[in-house]
Design a protein that fits this description.
The protein is α/β, with parallel strands linked by helices and about 230 residues long. Helix content is about 30%, strand content about 25%. The protein contains six helices and nine strands, in the order H-H-E-E-H-E-H-E-H-E-E-H-E-E-E. Strand 8 and strand 9 form a beta hairpin. It binds S-adenosyl-L-homocysteine.
Length: about 230
């Protein structure tokens, strides 16, 4: 039987500890793929600070602190906490950073970033998801987040350049506009579709010459919807 909690209640510290332990364990297992077998303490602290139960539908409250993706409606999902943690670390940004996110969804990754950096700009294609996420983030006190509805394929040039860009939907290729909106040596973390249903989490670093492209590990994200890739 599920625990009886109100949606507003703070997470049970034991649930949070278990989630952090599960993330650490998965980082060790996945480490040979991901090239890093630990998650930084600052990212784990951000995961611990974000009330994930406020980002999932009420009927999934009891699973909110499990290390799994969950459905959030509109055919979309909230990402797996380990993947959120890994992608956050792969950005390699500091507390002064301004980060752009494409694919707000329910706003969970947005909140984790907002715990860690100075400013987050986030773009979501589906209007009701964008509206719900931004309202949720506001209620939770994340006043360093600004969001808009639209196709993030072209980024958000008005606030560029960014110290890091994270895309939380799988793109058919690396959107050139996103590389253009990175500061020198900044990183774009993005799942790239390889065809046949395979996706590779990819890090693209802006350099003075050709961008440096690193494949990290296989992942499973919903597709980045774009009319003409
Ligand atoms: N970041 C979320 C997961 C998002 S799922 C989390 O923390 O759980 C991916 C999201 O990308 C979906 O909400 C989907 O609607 C959105 N999306 C898909 N294509 C997009 C596009 N071209 N621009 C912006 N958002 C897009």
């Amino acid at each position: 039987m599920g625990r009886v909690t109100s949606p507003d209640s703070a997470p049970d510290p034991e649930e949070v500890e278990r989630l952090l332990a599960d993330i650490r364990r998965e980082a060790r297992y996945a480490g040979s793929d991901a090239g890093r077998s630990t998650i930084t303490d600052s990212t784990l602290a951000a995961i611990a600070a974000v009330p994930r139960h406020r980002f999932v539908p009420e009927y999934l409250r009891d699973e909110a602190y499990s290390n799994h993706p969950l459905p959030i409606g509109h055919g979309q999902t909230i990402s797996q906490p380990y993947i959120v943690a890994l992608m956050t670390d792969l950005l390699e940004v500091d507390t002064a950073a301004t980060v752009m996110e494409v694919g707000t969804g329910c706003g969970y990754q947005t909140a984790v970033l907002a715990e860690l950096v100075r400013r987050v700009f986030t773009i979501e294609l589906v209007p009701p998801l964008a509206a719900e996420a931004l309202a949720r983030l506001r209620v939770l006190g994340y006043d360093n987040v600004e969001g808009r509805t639209g196709d993030g394929y072209a980024g958000w040039p008005e606030h560029a350049p960014y110290d890091g860009i994270i895309v939380t939907a799988a793109a058919a290729g690396i959107p050139p506009a996103l590389i253009d909106q990175l500061k020198p040596n900044a990183r774009l973390v993005i799942p790239v579709s390889e065809g046949g249903g395979y996706q590779t989490l990819t890090v693209v670093t802006r350099t003075a010459g050709e961008p440096k492209v690193e494949s990290i590990m296989p992942v499973a994200f919903v597709p980045l919807v774009h009319a003409s890739p």
